[in-house]
Automatic annotation (TrEMBL):
InterPro entries: AB_hydrolase, AB_hydrolase_1, AB_hydrolase_fold. It comes from the Archaea. This is AB hydrolase-1 domain-containing protein. It comes from Methanosarcina siciliae T4/M. PANTHER family: AB HYDROLASE-1 DOMAIN-CONTAINING PROTEIN, HYDROLASE, ALPHA/BETA FOLD FAMILY PROTEIN. Gene3D superfamilies: alpha/beta hydrolase (3.40.50.1820). It holds the Pfam family Abhydrolase_1. The lineage of its organism: Archaea, Methanobacteriati, Methanobacteriota, Stenosarchaea group, Methanomicrobia. Residues 58-124 form the AB hydrolase-1 domain.
Length: 138
């Protein structure tokens, strides 16, 4: 059996938020990321808020600690959504996600991310990080 794969794209401290300049890309069809409703899923004792755009192979964008999913550059998300099912989410305690009062750790955030993928029935993952999108066909 062939399982779907997901590409995970991580950004530390939203360093790639302006990866695509607004003036250098196709016109975005909506003025914000609000064109997709916020959905919630229970994970590890919290509710994680997320949005989805496009269709195709799943691509999970992980915002750096403290950054909200709405911080992603809309043109960047739109460009990716032309070929992928783009999923953005808020980490626990940020934006549309709740908080359990548990001490934060990288392990906890990684577990939350894995839980989100499980809840969305997406596995396994291919990791891409630090704005390295050379494997993406943009």
């Amino acid at each position: 059996m062939v399982l779907p794969q997901i590409l995970i794209f991580t950004v530390l401290f939203s360093g790639c938020a302006d990866f695509y300049g607004e003036e250098n890309s196709k016109e975005f069809t909506d003025s914000s990321l609000d064109s997709s409703p916020v959905k919630h899923v229970p994970v590890n004792g919290v509710e994680l808020g997320y949005r989805e755009f496009g269709s195709g192979e799943p691509l999970l964008l992980i915002m750096g600690f403290g950054g909200k999913m709405d911080t992603w550059n809309k043109t960047f998300v739109w460009e990716l959504a032309q070929d992928y099912r783009v999923i953005i989410f808020d980490n626990r305690g940020v934006g549309y996600s709740s908080d359990s009062g548990e001490n934060y750790s990288l392990e906890l955030f990684a577990s939350d991310t894995a839980g989100l993928l499980d809840a969305l029935e997406i596995s396994p993952a291919i990791r891409q990080s630090n704005c390295s999108i050379t494997d993406l066909d943009l």
